[in-house]
Write a structure and sequence with these properties.
The structure is a homodimer. Chain A contains eight helices and five strands, in the order H-H-H-H-E-E-H-H-H-E-E-E-H. The C terminus of chain A is likely disordered. In chain A, a hairpin with a 2-residue loop joins strand 4 and strand 5. With about 190 residues, chain A is an alpha+beta fold. Chain A has a three-stranded antiparallel sheet, covered by helices on one side. Chains A and B meet through helix 1, helix 2, helix 6 and helix 7 of A and helix 1, helix 2, helix 6 and helix 7 of B. The first copy, chain A, binds a DNA duplex (20 and 20 nucleotides) through helix 3 and helix 4.
Chain lengths: ~190, ~190
DNA sequence: CTGGATCCCTCACGATACTG
DNA sequence: CAGTATCGTGAGGGATCCAG
């Protein structure tokens, strides 16, 4: 079937055959935060055509990375969730996202920010050492999105709402926030 | 230029735009072990067409992941090497390779094993805790490839030669080897 | 011989429309 | 809501050719 193989007996090559196709890791990213319906996934990945999303879901299921689950009534329907094997990708997804974030420049007009990517970014940048002894709640607003981050016992949690743009707060807590969620500085200047 | 964008202001999406194209991470993998010429890369990735390799190298260079370097005489020519930013991918490459290795099944007839992938596999599976107090050398032979792994002060090193198939050694040391380089068991049975 | 560039073919991707 | 059908485009694949 798959003639588009790398032809290498190698863990990395095999991994790329499982989740290396276009859009695949972004689907995994959105499923890291929990099961989602087809339409939820499509909302989070606006630019993916539905046939491609459909194809990727089938491939990821065949690869043992995700699983289809029938939702119980009343919200009957289908949801997709990571298998245990798929969940093991979370670490790689966060690290790769962190690596990419180092060379992120200003957003293009077409770029959107999704709630899921924002929550994942908070998780990826969280600095547990800076969170010892701290109990606090932060509210992060980007465009329409509002994310609440609770920090407790050196671990972050998060919740979501919808709202509008707003910036306010105690400057000291902002400093604290910057310590808690930190992206190491980029070691080079990326070209345009 | 790049209309094939994910349209997300997100570290992961950006990372995938830099190194998510087909073959890109395999090129990075081979460069993790040091600078290589165009022909060396092509030898390690037999099934990549030269125009694709050429295109990927240009893209990775534009992305700030690799760098062209002119080789000094007498071996004049061009070599490609990871930038500092590119080197930061090593961890992700190893982890993703480890993840993929968990669902690796028997090699297809077309699959090849390269020296580089073997060395990377040893690095990825190395268990430092098991290596305390141990000083030893292992020789691993797969097909034509021979890899020497030295373990010293809880860290591995490696060297390479060429040879033929051979299996021999002290059984106790084999046990020790298995402890040192371990892939956690697969949590599921991957479909064909 | 290295280090690619060029040509051509095929198929996966992507846009859009449509259906159970 | 959850996809399938259709179709055009462009990237990947393979072979060949070319310059230093």
């Amino acid at each position: 079937m798959r003639s588009r193989t790398y032809g290498q007996f190698c863990g990395l090559a095999h991994a790329l055959e499982l989740v290396g196709e276009r859009w695949a890791l972004l689907i995994v990213r959105d499923l890291v935060l929990g099961p989602k319906r087809f339409t939820d996934l499509h909302r989070g990945l606006r630019r993916i055509p539905t046939n491609i999303l459909s194809a990727r879901l089938k491939e990821l299921e065949a690869a043992g990375v995700i699983r289809r689950r029938l939702l119980p009534r009343p919200a009957a329907g289908v949801a997709y969730e990571l298998t245990e094997y798929g969940q093991e990708l979370e670490d790689v997804v966060l690290r790769l996202g962190l690596w990419g974030a180092k060379s992120l420049r200003d957003p293009l007009p077409v770029d959107i920010v999704t709630t899921d990517s924002l929550i994942l970014a908070l998780r990826a940048t969280f600095q547990p050492e800076a969170a010892r002894e701290l109990r606090a709640g932060f509210e992060l607003r980007v465009g329409e999105i509002v994310v609440h981050a609770r920090v407790e016992h050196g671990a972050p949690g998060d919740a979501v709402e919808s709202g509008s743009v707003h910036v306010a707060g105690d400057p000291d807590l902002l400093t604290r926030f910057v310590e808690l969620f930190r992206i190491p500085p980029a070691p080079f200047a990326a070209p345009a």
